[in-house]
Design goal:
Number of strands of chain B: 12
CATH architecture of the largest domain in chain A: 2-Layer Sandwich
Helix content of chain B: 40-55%
Structural class of chain A: alpha+beta
Strand order of the largest sheet of chain B: 5-12-11-7-8-9-10-6
Number of strands of chain A: 13
Order of helices and strands of chain A: EHEHHHHEEHHEEEHEEEEHHEEHH
Number of domains of chain A: 2
Largest interface: A-B, 44 and 63 residues
Structural class of chain B: alpha+beta
Number of helices of chain B: 19
Strand order of the largest sheet of chain A: 9-8-7-6-12-13
Oligomer: heterodimer
CATH class of the largest domain in chain A: Alpha Beta
Helix content of chain A: 25-40%
Strand content of chain B: 5-15%
Largest sheet of chain A: 6 strands, antiparallel
Strand content of chain A: 15-25%
Shape of chain A: globular
Largest sheet of chain B: 8 strands, mixed
CATH topology of the largest domain in chain A: Dna Ligase, domain 1
Radius of gyration of chain B: 25 Å
Distance between the termini of chain B: 26 Å
Chain lengths: 362, 602
């Protein structure tokens, strides 16, 4: 049984073992994109827990008593199940594999107790969109093998949040239908981070990349707590067409206690742009590379690593297909069967559409 | 914010300029006779071509150009929604007003004629364009044959023995009439293709804006732009000559001024003489190049002001010696253009759109060489010849005591010149003194005073009630006048710390401003400064190697200057309306050529 797969050694045949998110990162890494090094704890590793006979019986019994109408009771049930799951000692083989992979990662990064992000990547062979049950857990700035092992277990148990349990019950899915792979990746220490779309979200223009950015870790942007700076970059010319710098009152950053926390941003930095123009363009290029790799519009997460030199410091954390505009059936603008003369006449008669108001910074 | 510009009838005459109307044809000023019509129209000041007050004769090209432009829209091709562009002069400055076809039924009725007539030109474009090149060169050849020489004390014996039957006084009058005919013919040729070229370009432009709603105008321009364009030739020739000077070891000669000293030094060696021979070969026609828009007799022409091209050659020599590569990277420019086209093509969502994109781009590229090249042949080369010939005529008047300076001839209206010629001829024929010297001596003094007063007046960017939207396609493309730019003029106080305009060339730069108003001041521009000017001319290209960015008062995306700005890859914001009035030399500013904004930092 394979319990650990290195992202840089990924083989597409292993996709079911890794889950969508980890497989996608591995694929981008092998395509030469700057993805932080790391490994996936496979679905097989999770199965050592799921298939633990005593536990299985106990969880089954707890779930049978569930009352969907009782929200507080459901939370209590979730806490009980997660507590139980986290108490079960990890399978020896899994623990050994994860520990030695983490040590290899430390060596690879030439850092003692390299800080890593531990992220869940839910998967299902039967359900097309395994993230249906909402966010699973992510643990930032985890250091040391013991902590890594503990957070892997917590990721596993996040399959049993109250929301996930209720959802599966409502949909009539068996609780075994989902599995979990966990990604362990070297943690970027970001000066700024955010998201990017490889189209203009307001008009669907595929020739632009929209970049949103804030100070520190990306959690504030992803969750919507911080109003990010936003930029529109022209894909083909590589120029910034529009920039809006926002007041960024707080950021997620590394605190004195070596953990990631929400901290107020000092006055001078609040209204300063969180990216230089060169960085904005580098983020847009990175998003464009992901788009070219997958051949469809992408929604990516990225970070600017404060420890890497300018030019090599924009890192890709995540890429998934853009869904809002991409779901629309493309309708051609060209009117079929018209010759150039009638087209010119149409343009002359309605030059209004020919020149919409130029986009200006507000 | 005001909702309209002043009425032309509310504009006062600047003190000292009383009587300015008499300096122009009676149909040029706004007048009570047409007040109702004139007050109902929206007029914008054309600073792209005429940023300064016009002397009487210089108004000739304004009238020839606008009437010819209009004639093609209205009477040749029947552009369905557009008649011509009406024109007036107010306090010496040019105001234009696009005239639309108001009645939808009439627009409809014009369509089949447009399809037939414009269609013929589009289908036979290459043949007709080749024919145009022959016609324009023939026309310039005819201009070159014009002679204006002082009237002889006694006619040549051959006039008698060959039985010619006409004398020099007749010839000089005929030559002047011919000059006017050739000039009008030139402007007829100018618009033979231009309006159609813009129409095809606008069609591609409109399509791109529909498929990519946020595509920068600049990207569209880049897809269509030619790589080897005649308008860039003069600069290319200078670079070639600078290289030759360095290679043949005559570069030091350019350290001297004035140009006569440079030429003397060059004549002293074989290598220098070889360089001068190369110079002569390049000069005709390429240095018939105006340092301005070509529409003013005061615009300096390279051939006649050698200090300008020699100065550029000197700068290029210095660059070459310090190891800078001054050549235009033709292959890289071509590759970049192909990349842009390929990437936009890839981003299109459907095969139908890809087919339409290719077809429209194809047509735009067929027509575009004319749009880019005509400017050299008409405003630069032909006008240079015409100004030169007019100065010869001015010299004749000087010789006869009419004027103190050959350029005084431009203070006469074009139809006053025949009167003055008649006076000169008639007195010569009779053998007495003409009235001209006294008459024009007085009158020119008065006119010069008026012009001085007009030059110190600042024309408002527009007059009358602005339209909600501007629909006339050529006004949009050539002058960059849109509903939005007009609103900006209305709202601009000119002092709120920033300016907006067209994002004409991408990039962002900060630096000290250098505000200059004419080509004479080019020498003041120092390394690393940001050029702020009413407009830039194609012939300013060599200083683009020194400056960081450009800000102009006027111009749209397809104005001649914009084409060249992009070519040299500097951030540029054009059409700010108030740039030269708001920004002071030495002030630090930030130019954002992506967003079309200028920020004043001090």
């Amino acid at each position: 049984m394979t319990f650990v797969v290195w992202l840089h050694e990924y083989d597409p045949a292993q996709r079911p073992l890794l889950g969508g998110k980890n497989a996608s990162l591995a694929e981008l890494l092998s395509a030469g994109l700057p993805v932080p090094p790391g490994f996936a704890v496979t679905v097989g590793a999770y199965h050592t827990l799921r298939d633990h006979a005593d536990l299985r019986r106990e969880v089954g019994r707890l779930l049978a008593e569930m009352d969907l109408g009782d929200a507080a009771g459901l939370e209590q049930l979730s806490a009980t199940i997660r507590g139980r799951l986290e108490q079960v000692p990890m399978h020896d083989g899994v623990a050994r594999a994860v520990r030695s992979a983490y040590e290899a990662l430390c060596e690879r990064c030439q850092l003692e107790a390299v800080p890593v992000a531990v992220r869940s990547s839910a998967t299902s062979e039967d359900l097309p969109d395994a993230s249906f049950a909402g966010e699973h857990d992510t643990y930032l700035w985890v250091r040391g093998a013991a902590d890594v092992l503990r957070q892997v277990t917590r990721c596993w148990s996040s399959l049993f949040t109250a929301r996930a349990i209720a959802y599966r019950r409502e949909m009539g899915h068996d609780h075994d239908v989902v599995s979990m792979s966990v990604g362990v990746q070297k943690m970027v220490h970001p000066r700024a981070s955010g998201v990017a779309f490889t189209l203009n979200p307001s008009d669907g223009d595929r020739s632009q990349v929209a970049v949103e950015s804030a100070w520190g870790f990306g959690e504030g942007v992803v969750s919507g707590e911080v109003t990010p700076d936003s930029f529109l970059v022209d894909k083909v010319l590589g120029t910034i067409a529009r920039r809006t710098v926002s007041d960024k009152a707080f950021e997620y950053r590394l605190t004195d206690g070596d953990t990631v926390g929400r901290v107020a941003v000092e006055e001078a930095r609040r209204t300063a742009p969180s990216l230089t123009d060169d960085e904005v363009c580098a983020v847009a290029r990175l998003a464009r590379r992901a788009e070219k790799h997958y051949g469809c519009a992408q929604d990516v997460e990225w970070a600017v690593d404060r420890d890497l030199p300018a030019g090599d410091n924009v890192i890709l954390l995540q890429a998934r297909p853009e869904t809002v505009w991409s779901r629309r059936e493309p309708t051609p603008v060209a009117v079929p069967g018209t010759d150039f003369m009638s087209s010119i006449v149409r343009t002359l008669l309605s030059p209004l559409h020919a020149r919409p108001t130029q986009e200006r910074p507000p | 914010m005001a909702d309209r510009f002043p009425s032309p009838f509310d504009i006062e005459t600047p003190p000292g300029a009383e009587g300015w109307q008499e300096l122009y044809t009676y149909s040029l000023p706004f007048s009570e006779d047409r007040r109702e019509y004139e007050d109902s129209m929206f007029w914008f000041q054309d600073g792209v071509h005429w940023p300064e007050a016009l002397t009487p004769w210089d108004a000739t090209f304004l009238e020839y150009a606008l009437a010819s432009l209009s004639q093609y829209n209205t009477r040749h091709y029947l552009i369905p929604p557009a008649l011509g562009v009406d024109y007036r002069v107010l306090n010496g400055y040019t105001y234009l007003s696009p005239v639309g076809v108001a009645d939808p039924a009439e627009v409809e009725a014009r369509v089949p004629h447009f399809l037939e007539r414009a269609g013929f030109y589009f289908q036979n474009w290459d043949t007709l364009y080749e024919q145009w090149m022959t016609k324009i060169r023939g026309l310039i050849g005819e201009m070159e044959t014009l002679r204006f020489e002082p009237l002889p004390a006694m006619e040549d014996l051959a006039v008698v023995t060959e039985g010619r039957g006409v004398g020099s006084g007749f010839e000089i009058q005929r030559s002047y009439h011919k000059l006017l005919d050739l000039a009008l013919q030139l402007w007829q040729y100018h618009f033979e293709f231009l309006n159609l070229g813009y129409a095809a370009y606008l069609d591609f432009f409109g399509f791109c804006k529909q498929v990519f709603p946020s595509i920068p105008d600049l990207a569209i321009a880049k897809m269509v732009a030619g790589v080897e364009v005649d308008l860039f030739k003069p600069d290319e020739e200078l670079k070639k000559l600078a290289r030759l000077a360095v290679e043949s070891g005559v570069g030091d000669a350019f350290g001297a001024t004035p140009p006569t000293t440079v030429i003397e030094a060059l004549r002293a060696s074989d290598a220098g003489r070889a360089w001068l021979a190369e110079w002569e070969a390049s000069a005709q026609p390429w240095f018939n190049f105006s340092a301005g828009s070509g529409f003013y007799h005061t615009d300096e022409i390279w051939l006649e002001h050698l200090e300008i091209p020699f100065g550029f050659v000197r700068d290029y020599i210095a660059k070459l010696r310090s190891g800078v590569d001054i050549s235009r990277p033709i292959e890289a420019i071509r590759a970049e253009r192909d990349r842009i086209v390929a990437e936009y093509g890839e981003l299109l969502a459907t095969d139908e759109d890809r087919a339409a994109f290719e077809q429209k781009l194809g047509l735009a590229r067929v027509v575009f060489p004319y749009v880019e090249n005509h400017n050299f042949y008409v405003e630069h080369w032909s006008h240079s010849v015409l100004w030169r010939k007019m100065r010869q005529l001015g010299g004749v008047f000087v010789k006869e005591g009419f004027f103190g300076d050959e350029n005084d001839v431009f203070y006469l209206k074009r139809d006053e010149v025949p009167e003055a010629l008649w006076d000169m001829y008639s007195a010569w024929a009779v053998g007495v003194q003409p009235r001209g010297p006294k008459y024009w001596g007085r009158e020119l003094e008065r006119r010069k005073r008026i012009l001085t007063a007009l030059r110190s007046w600042s024309p408002p960017p527009a007059l009358g009630e602005p339209p909600e939207v501007v629909t006339e396609p050529f006004t949009i493309m050539l002058w960059g006048i849109t509903g939005e730019s007009v609103k900006q003029w209305l709202g601009a106080s000119g002092t709120d710390g920033g300016l907006k305009g067209f994002a004409a060339s991408p990039g962002v730069a900060e630096g000290e401003a250098r505000v200059i108003f004419s080509a004479d001041q080019i020498g003041e521009v120092r390394e690393g400064e940001i050029l702020v000017a009413p407009l830039t001319a194609p012939s300013w290209a060599p200083i683009f190697g020194k400056i960081r960015a450009t800000v102009t008062d006027v111009g749209g995306m397809m104005a001649h200057a914009a084409i060249v700005c992009r070519e040299y890859g500097l951030p540029a914001v054009t059409g700010t309306a108030f740039g030269t009035k708001t920004i002071k030399t030495g002030q630090r500013i930030r130019v954002d050529g992506n967003a079309g904004t200028v920020t004043l930092l001090d």
